[in-house]
């Protein structure tokens, strides 16, 4: 996932970063966009659409990595994260019309960030 995240979101720092650092920063960037979209109100559809598109992209990259043969996470954790990815992708699509769903997406991403931060 780390290499795909780096390609999708660009190198945020030029220093040496762990895969967890890269994933954390990708989630932080996307979550910040979701928060800004939530704060801008329900009538700012273009901002919300952009933030939700970036969230779908991130979760799609994550799901692709999780489904790959080279992923070394435990099968149970992989399955749980794949289910979460499917949920996040679907909710991101639904949130275009229903901005109240942004709060749940922000919470999911924030919890992922907590997990990534705790494992450093």
User: Which descriptor suits the 3D outline?
Assistant: globular
Total beta strands: 0
CATH class: Mainly Alpha
What series of H and E elements makes up the topology? HHHHH
Integer-rounded radius of gyration: 14 Å
Number of self-contained structural domains: 1
Number of H/I helices: 5
Q: Which structural category fits the helices and strands?
A: mainly alpha
Organism: Donghicola mangrovi
InterPro entries: FlaF
Pfam families: FlaF
Protein name: Flagellar biosynthesis regulator FlaF
Brief synopsis:
By secondary structure, this protein is an all-alpha fold. Helix content is 74%, strand content 0%. It has a single domain (16-118), classed as Four Helix Bundle (Hemerythrin (Met), subunit A) (Up-down Bundle).
Tell me what the structure shows.
This protein has 120 residues and is an all-alpha fold. The protein has one domain: Up-down Bundle (Four Helix Bundle (Hemerythrin (Met), subunit A)). 74% of the residues lie in helices and 0% in strands. Helix 1 (2-9) packs across helix 2 (19-39) and helix 3 (45-67) runs antiparallel to helix 4. The longest helix is centred in the middle third of the chain and has 23 residues, at 45-67. This is Flagellar biosynthesis regulator FlaF.
How are the elements arranged and paired?
Layout: H1 2-9, H2 19-39, H3 45-67, H4 75-94, H5 102-118
Helix pairs in contact: 1-2, 2-3, 2-5, 3-4
